[in-house]
Amino acid sequence: MDSVISFGGANAGFQAGIINGPVNTAFHLPPERRKTPPPPSIFIPFAQDADFVERGTTLDQVQQRCAAPRSRAALVGLGGVGKSQLAIEHAHRTHKQSPETWVFWVHASNAARFEQSYRDIDDRVKIFGRRDPQANIFELVHNWLCDSRQRWLLVLDNVDDARFLLSDQPDGHNQGQTTNAHVIWKPLREYLPHCKRGSILVTTRNKEAALKLVEQRDIVSVEPMDKAEGIALFEKKLRVQEDNESVAELAAALEYMPLAIVQAAAYILQRAPRCSVVKYLDEYRKSERKQTSLLDRDEGHLRRDREAKNSILVTWQISFEYIQQTRSSAADLLSLMSFFDRQGIPEDLLRPRTERQGAQTIQTEKLGNHGDSDSEDDISQSSAGDNKFEDNIVALRNFCFISVDTSGTSFEMHALVQLATRMWLEANSKLEQWKEQFVSNLCAAFPTGEYENWVTCCALFAHARSAVGQPPEHESSLAEWATLLYRAACYKVNESTEEGARARAPGHFV
Fold this sequence. Notes:
Structural class: alpha/beta
Helix content: 40-55%
Radius of gyration: 30 Å
CATH topology of the largest domain: Rossmann fold
Number of strands: 9
Strand order of the largest sheet: 1-3-4-5-2-6
CATH class of the largest domain: Alpha Beta
Distance between the termini: 116 Å
Strand content: 5-15%
Largest sheet: 6 strands, parallel
CATH superfamily of the largest domain: P-loop containing nucleotide triphosphate hydrolases
């Protein structure tokens, strides 16, 4: 029986019976027609936020940098601090102030989303040649931007890991992430044009990634809101009249973090009238476990990328995982720091005890020995330890997880970052390990409460107070914990006695 296959309309095909030799076929698509490009417009996936709160001069700094020809700028800050929201606001304001300016949004968290964003731009502006299956989409968009007669703004959002932009190997770490890998002839960063009429704005929580794309001078640091800004955002998101004092207290408890404020406001609104700011604050203050429960919720934000988490704690834990994978020693340092009081974390207590003892030994040997080979080896090892420690500090500062005080010898962290870190450690069964390390380091450094030790005791007392609610499980560490608290209590008792008052009096010397 004969079989019949027919092709109609725009379809085409090839049919053959028994063939004993090679067959070559070629299908010729109709030639692509050049289309008139649309007028300049704004293509970003987020609407302008009617509840946007001004952040001091931050947007002015961005506007000033992006107004220059061939400009690049980066918004760098802690996850959840509002970088993308600032970029969204800047994008909308740019188009309103200059309707003849193209505004594009590129999701830059990985190679696949970067490529899809370029394809979206390609389709929006109808670039000639985009229908060619062998076309290099990145090159088409790059060349179109360079040749554009109108100004344009390109926002690269969430460039937290820039490695995929730097790799020139399509089968490297981004293998399988891009469907067009065989036509990537150079690193994707090369397809970000430097054009007279264009500007690029990057958002990232990783300063190291930002420096792969912009100059140091073009980084705009984004800090948490100040008190007035935090309260204003809370009141706008709540949309109902609440006790002003309670709103201020809750905003302060959330350390004026925009994402945490939006998350809390959404929680309250969804449960009103059975929940209010006062009730939320009461629950939040009950325990660390309750804080974790309230903040570990993925709700409340319409202007975040679909890959981004609305939970402030989960947002940071994603960064913890990245640091763990790329520099595990920095993750260890962050783990240890999460148990101290958030301010005045001393450098000496963060270094391994053997390293501290080694440094003291080396200093002694420097005074007594010259030219000793063993001493030189020790110095070399100490130098390597110093370099590693400094590199770890830089890694944590790049993600804005810690800051350095003016003296350069102690550090600070946000209390919420510490909470998120401990939550992450607990989920990975490492909480006790680092709690015991914290207790051990602090116990070894905290002296007895005699007057001559008061300066040291005073500097460490806040950290000892942090240890009160963190008793370790193992018996040996529990003994150190008890010793630490005993010494701290003795210091406080001695300081508060009448003798202590006399000791502090002017002209009194011991």
